[in-house]
Amino acid sequence: MTAPYETLITESIVVRMYNTSIARYGGMESKPKDGCIKAVLGNAWNAAYYHWDEDENPGGLVFAAFVFMYFMHDHCYGDGNKRIAWMTMTYLLKKQFNLTLHATDEEAEGFCLAVIKDKLAIETILEWMNPRLAIDMPE
Fold first, then answer.
1. Does residue 55 fall inside a structural domain?
2. What is the span of the domain harbouring residue 55?
3. What is the pLDDT at residue 96?
4. What is the model's pTM?
5. Does 21 reside within a domain?
6. CA 97, CA 138: separation in Å to the nearest integer?
7. From residue 38, how far is each of 34, 76, 83 by CA, in Å?
């Protein structure tokens, strides 16, 4: 049976993104903990499903934010967890809505560290994301 999120992102996509990030930016390459990626994606889908308020946030935006949050906290890899969290979130935003998240490297790093250190709630993550989202317009 196919998981409902697999039309948006799969474990193999996450693994490819992780391997690309390690090759490009360095770090200690590792295999993900058994079942961790599937758990992150499934838990994020479930959390978004129960959290989604049709009048406030599009469901896919909430899913992307939960994927980010769960990858940040679940540490599927020995190294590169903040990168894979950021990459999966931005991948989902682009794929679902044709949105990019505009933040400097310093803003993105500070935000990632705050999510880890302060255990930011999903509402805070969405509040940080919303003003930084922009539609990618074809040239």
1. yes
2. 11-135
3. 85
4. 0.90
5. yes
6. 14
7. 9, 10, 18
